[in-house]
Amino acid sequence: MDSHLLETFLVVLEQGSLAAAARHLGLTPAAIAQRIDVLEKDVGAPLLMRAGRRVVPNQAGRAIVESSQKVLAEVRRLRSLARSDELAGELTLGAIATAMTGLVPDALARLQSEVPRLEVFLMPGTSRELHRNVVEGKLDAAIIVRPPFEIAKTLEWRRLRLEPLCLFCPHDTKGDDVLRILREAPFIRYDRSNWGGKQVDDWLNGNGLAPRDWLELDSLDAIAIMVGKGLGVSILPDWTRLWPENPKVRLLPLPGSRPREIGALCHRGSPVARLIEALLHTIAPHE
Question: Are 14 and 65 in contact (CB under 8 A)?
Fold first, then answer.
């Protein structure tokens, strides 16, 4: 059985439709449908069914999901062993939005020049989603905010960057009293469903602050732009940004706060450990 058939099957389940899977894999919907048809003939049973606008696994499809993931992991392990004398192969990497635009592009550019036979597949997402995908073996590694719970012993955490929390406020805000500003100004909140946003919420609660919320967003860039327009203030990590420092935004240190920790999560003993190490070395060579 061609491993690409199993890969296509899992991507269809992840994306929810043949068309979305086609876009993800850079193929046509007809090619995806053909692969699924061949796979179903190989296993001797239909694997998918319609549920509204989505495609979901039927009973037979659900029965082979876990085995399919294990087969693909073993195929990749064998490929890695066969190439043990050279740095080459495939790497599936997840990254949160700020890492996708801040840390990852330069690292991949350097890595591509050093390891031309490396293929990297990128998946954006929240820290929570990407953590789950690493645990389930759907990703080799992910660059995320450090989980607010103990990391499983089967996983490895590599710190890449510490980002201090700051009060982002309009450039014409008077004074440097962070607590006063937070009590008086409209507050644009970093989404509490994100681990970084929860960290901000914990600091506010620990200091007995209940700012005047009027927006809650998960895009740090969007929040910073709104602050620059004078729409309010926010507490955000001082992350790596593509845009230059905005002269319309002031950053004030947040007293008594701990920084947001960004790092890489992967499985211990991963079959692509050398590729992961090469990538991380381009991001943080001295960590």
Answer: no
Query: What is the CATH code of the structural domain delimited by 83-162+260-287?
Result: 3.40.190.10
DSSP labels, 48-85:
EEEETTEEEE-HHHHHHHHHHHHHHHHHHHHHHHHTTT
Which 8-state DSSP code applies to residue 167?
A: E
Residue 179 DSSP one-character state: H
Tens digits of residue pLDDT in 160-205: 999 999 999 999 999 999 999 999 999 999 999 999 999 999 999 9
Largest separation between any pair of C-alpha atoms in the chain:
72
Read off the DSSP letter of residue 262: E
Sequence letter at residue 131: H
**Strand 118-124 vs strand 141-145: parallel, antiparallel, or unpaired?**
unpaired
pLDDT tens digits for range 101-114: 888 988 888 887 77
Instruction: 77-84: list long-range contacts, CB under 8 Å, 24+ apart.
Output: 77/271, 80/271, 80/272, 80/274, 81/271
Domain boundaries, the chain: 1-82, 83-162+260-287, 165-258
Strands (E) across the chain are located at 48-51, 54-57, 89-95, 118-124, 141-145, 155-163, 165-170, 186-190, 212-217, 234-237, 249-253, 260-267
For helices 195-206 and 127-135, the axis angle rounded to 10 degrees is 130
Q: Does domain 165-258 have CATH number 3.40.190.10?
A: yes
Topology agreement, domain 1-82 and domain 165-258: no
Look at the domain 1-82 and name its fold.
Arc Repressor Mutant, subunit A (1.10.10)
